[in-house]
From TrEMBL:
The lineage of its organism: Bacteria, Bacillati, Bacillota, Bacilli, Bacillales. The keyword Nucleotide-binding applies. This is EutP/PduV family microcompartment system protein. SUPFAM superfamilies: P-loop containing nucleoside triphosphate hydrolases. The keyword Nucleotide-binding applies.
Amino acid sequence: MVIGSVGAGKSSLIRALLNDDREVAKTQSLLFRDWLIDTPGEYCENPLQYRYLIATSFDTKLLVLVQDATKERGYFPPGFAGGFPVPAIGVITKIDHPSANPAKAERLLRQAMPKGECFAVSSWEGTGIEELRSRIDHLLQSDGRR
């Protein structure tokens, strides 16, 4: 399940992970695509919506927390990943953008997810996508859910 703020690059990331050439559109509700779940950014930005993320996570193997490398702030509260029954990995998106600050993005992610791997990617250039896909594939196959 992919979680992040509005505009963080979740849908573009999913598009890259699935080698999908469809245009990216604003996610309005939970979208189940192949082996991934795309979540609306509003679910991350509004604590009243967290219950939908938590409920959905019971049907998943892994959380993918997405932080936009161009943003000055994070949208996940401290310890956010610890409220879910599955492990989390972090993904820093938009590393190809001129104003990207991947180090700051990782610090913001680490507040929400103190443990777990972080991957820096560019969904448009493909940087880091194969490594991330491989790691997700390994984690999903270890549970037989793919």
